[in-house]
Amino acid sequence: MATKKAVTNDYSEYKRKFWQLFMYGFLGIILLFLFASWGFFGKMPSFDDLENPDSNVATEIISSDGVVIGKFYKENRTPVKYHELPQHLVKGLVATEDERFYEHSGIDAKGTLRAVVRLGRDGGASTLTQQLAKNLFHGEGSKFILFRVIQKVKEWIIAIRLERQYTKQEIIALYLNQVDFVNGAVGIRSAAKIYMNKEPKDLTIEESALFIGMLKNPSLYNPNRKKRAKLVLDRRNTVLGQMVKNGVITESKKEELKKLPIKLDFKPESHSEGSATYFREYLRDYMKKWVKDHLKPDGTEYDLYRDGLKIYTTIDSKMQQYAEEAVTEHLKNLQKEFFINAKDKENAPFVDITPEQTQQIMMQAMKNSERWRKMDLNGKTEEEIIKSFDVAAKMKIFTYEGEKDTIMKPKDSIIYYKHMLQTGMMAMEPRNGHIKAWVGGVNYKYFQYDHVGQGARQVGSTFKPFLYATAIEQLGMSPCDSIIDSYFTMPKGKWGIDADWSPKNSDGNYRGTITLQKALANSVNTVSAKLIDRVGPKAVVDMAKELGVTSDIPEQPSIALGAVDITVEQMVGAMSTFANQGVYVKPTFIIKIEDKNGVIIDQPVPFTKDVVNKDVAYAVVKLMEGVTSSGTGARLKYGGGGFIQYDYSFGNPIAGKTGTSQNNSDGWFIGMVPNLATGVWVGNEDRAAHFRATRLGQGATMALPIWGIFMKKCYADSDLDVSKEPFEKPEDLQIKVDCWTPKKVVDTTAVPTDEPDMDEFGL
Q1: Any residues with CB less than 8 A from the CB of 207 and at least 6 apart, and which?
Q2: Given CA atoms 185, 190, 191, 193 in this order, what sign does their dihedral have?
Q3: Of 314, 380, 427, 714, which is most buried with the most CB atoms under 10 A?
């Protein structure tokens, strides 16, 4: 009997210890959850954090026609709302990742119990809400088991709070906005754009299944990795199977979709590629200053890369595309001519400079290179760095046929790039100052310098309309007034010059008595010199300043021939004043800026001012129409000229002006129709590198074709509504603009000749 009693007491002791351990364990679990929720194991998200999760939302740059042309981001994430998601994507996600999503409140008890019993062999039983909690607040987490348990507990708590805070639909949208699909695609919207070049709402069933399949491991199941094509395809088909199992699609539909190959339209997004790259970088620089002047309600600065701003710009995505295409189409041809003309020439591409000057250019280029910067950081001496530029290395170089892999000495690559022609092009609406297209160079990845907003270059004859406007306003002249084109000398001391000045016409001829209209059309230098002698340099400088030119302009007579450096942006803004009936509108590129909630936080008002009266403005426009009807820009209407025959055949009125600087270093063309003004500059990075012959180096050959190609594309697109109408004539016009000209006798037996070189040379 004693033995039986002892055994009974032993069982009682076991029971007592079991329940004791059970209670301690249960209490420990409760305390673990309480301590975790109180933040003892690290900060937990507050109510406000759950309402506004920190999700690194990219700032979007939106064109005037509603196209996202670029983003600023640390993570390339652009949120999408639930109603913008296709239902097959939503249902496929639930079917694959969380079948009981609509039944649980953040934690799937059945799935969790199964995972515990099977020691996680069938998966971790994380619900979509738990995965969202992990992505939002601690990422992958620790590998150390104790910390991992604590993080799992925190996931559960956050998941429950998320379920209380958001609807099921909002949780799905939040989840898909948080997932990193790699290759710079964070969130389903960026992923759809980068991998398929479409919006999420346009994804097909098999494309949705592909993205759902990536969720398991975005790197492993990445469709852009061709070596894993079968693995990715099998994973996609597994998702299709889950969609059948959960009634999303039928078995027959699955079999049909399984046979489809994976098709991508892979377009990775980066700051150096895509549309309007130079404009986007100009905008970025502007926004860096903007955030300091436009603070949040709490007094802190907006984060351009995380706060999800929406910047609505004036850029038209189609015009931007046409401008970039026009630049490529013409410069691809012109660049070939440049290489041909420079071939076997001593010291090419440089012309008429000393060996010392060449060495100075090369040394500066080496010091500005990435190679120099990296080697300098690694402690290499200047001698070692310079020597490395003569050692051949593998590299990629820019060509108009695409990037090219080659082996080349770094010094030779510098020479190669010094041959490359550059450009700056901007189009804007004169009425409101809205910039519609901005091309700062030929390829931002290889050439970061912006020749629209940064690069001021000598403008040549394109400056002459400012001079003529001054003469018309101050001297009461008209385009039909006559002036003698003859040899002219301005004596030493006049207007502060320190030597006699005798400018010559580029063709070496004098035409005798001509009208102002013909003088501007043919860029007659002697007439410009006589006009500035009458009005004085200061009056012309004042006119240019009133027209929005902020560059430093010397008060010297030589500015009559364009011996002044001005940016494309300023030149287009100034010329637009004449098309806008004498009212200057400062070029603007932002319509409005919204925060991530759609609240307007800035809406700039363009700066405007009256510069000249309508009559003077119209008279200048008529002068400039003479350039394209019978002068240096006549090939826009009649064809001919240049090294390649472009067919423009414009029949509508065009106000324009060509320009060529000294030694053909800069070629310009400004062209305007009533609702669009566009300026183009073409030249090499270094002014010492240029065409040797004016036939190829003048503005009518280098820059005008880009304008012509661009405008043909714009006119072909009826959505753009670019005007072909005449410029509006002021009522009761007091200035004579319709000049009588004798009928031209044409010798039909004469052999056709090329258009004469009539651009001037600045001093």
Answers
A1: 192, 196
A2: negative
A3: 427
